[in-house]
Amino acid sequence: MLYKRLVPPALAVVLLSALSLTVVQAEVTGSFDIDVGLIPTGTQIEATPFFVDLQSTLQLNVTLSGLTWGLNAGFGPTGIEFAILRLSTSLGALAVRDTAVFATPFFNTSATDPVTPDEIHPTSTSGSKDNNGPSFAKNRVALRLNVAGLALSNLLIFEDVDFPNPLKYINPTYNPDGVDATVDTGGRGLANQTPSLGLGDVMSVEGQTLSGVTIRSSTGLCVRPEHNVIGKRLWPKSVDPDCGTSSPLLLGFERVRVEGVSLGGATLNGEFFWSPSLASVKSALSFSLLSGTDVVLTLSSNDLTHLNLDVVRVDATSSALSFSALDLNGDLNFDLIQATLAMTLNPKRSPASLKLRGFMMAGTGLVFGKVVLSVKKDLFTYALTTVFDTAAGGTSASWNHTHFDLSAKVGTFNVELKSVVSASGLRRASVKLGVAF
């Protein structure tokens, strides 16, 4: 009959009116970026062909009646590279956030570190066919509830524990036994692209005593403290791939932190961390002095039986200077010293930010150095970053590469120009255009 096949005109008018009203009431925000990367095929001549890495990213957030839908999608020469879907809302005192991640699996054939875009390829099935677009990578559901001064939170992670990270350097040739294999060989945690799904959970509680001391506790079940990278984004914590194989339930980590304990003229903070999968125990004690200096003492052990000290670290931070000393073998002789100095030049006119950072190793001297100079003038921001290290060989740090960055923002429109130059020549240049709405 006709009414089964067609929408009555009156009903169509009502639906269109409701849809128009919904669009008007919804709050829509987001941004769109286009990033064009240029990688030279060689540096032997002045005019050289370039690999072109074209990427575009769309971020969209729609808020309607207390619900917020989010989309973050990336597009490249191979098509859709990733899509991140988010849904968040509040149900009274309960905040809910659900994040689903889909990404195209890639692998790299890099002979050096870092991995460059021209060394990243889409994975293939056992029939040597490229994978068709994004596949499921992970789903994270975060809950947070405030009850009578207590903040209770829970993070449920359901993910593919074998999903490859193309930005991770493996070995000079290509490791056929790594998790980023070219073709699917099956198995869990082996050289494969077959999804191996795992489930983990992190439970946390936070509260404050009557004296103002804050106590936080987090317990990870089948969850490791290690991060992973999917869609070129860092995701805190990941599911342990051994969970469900060697044991149906594994304790991933336990962290307890106490903050705000007053003792004399100092404020003490303490942290205890234990991870059976890493076979390590770490405790940290920090305190603030009246002079504005924060000091942190961290003790780590990989021997759970005898609790022998493996790493001793001392951090001291003031307004402009930070200092770290590490004893890497527990012999109370510091093996590595890190220092960072941050200052503002010409603060009254065309202020510039200068940051100096260095790593010194016992018996070797300076092994890493970084100089960052940033100047902001009107709409423009210029940054110059130079890195020195021992990657080129030798016993002391030498120039590795320099970043040249220029950015400008006019209203909702922004542009960034970047290039990286090393002793061998230009490594990469890029132009990024974006608009926010």
From the structure above, extract its key features.
globular, disordered N terminus, mainly beta, 2 helices, single chain, two-stranded antiparallel sheet, 437 residues, 28 strands, 22-stranded antiparallel β-barrel
How would you describe this protein?
The chain has 437 residues and is mainly beta. The protein has a domain at 95-212 and 219-246. The chain has two helices and 28 strands. The protein has helices at 2-5, 9-25, and strands at 27-40, 50-64, 67-76, 79-91, 94-103, 106-108, 120-122, 135-147, 150-160, 197-208, 214-221, 223-224, 228-230, 233-235, 238-239, 251-263, 266-275, 280-288, 294-301, 311-317, 321-327, 336-345, 352-361, 365-377, 380-389, 398-410, 413-422, 425-436. It has a 22-stranded antiparallel beta barrel. The radius of gyration is 26 Å and the shape is globular.
Q: How are the elements arranged and paired?
A:
Elements: H1 2-5, H2 9-25, E1 27-40, E2 50-64, E3 67-76, E4 79-91, E5 94-103, E6 106-108, E7 120-122, E8 135-147, E9 150-160, E10 197-208, E11 214-221, E12 223-224, E13 228-230, E14 233-235, E15 238-239, E16 251-263, E17 266-275, E18 280-288, E19 294-301, E20 311-317, E21 321-327, E22 336-345, E23 352-361, E24 365-377, E25 380-389, E26 398-410, E27 413-422, E28 425-436
Antiparallel strand pairs: 1-2, 1-28, 2-3, 3-4, 4-5, 5-8, 6-7, 8-9, 9-10, 10-11, 11-16, 12-15, 13-14, 16-17, 17-18, 18-19, 19-20, 20-21, 21-22, 22-23, 23-24, 24-25, 25-26, 26-27, 27-28
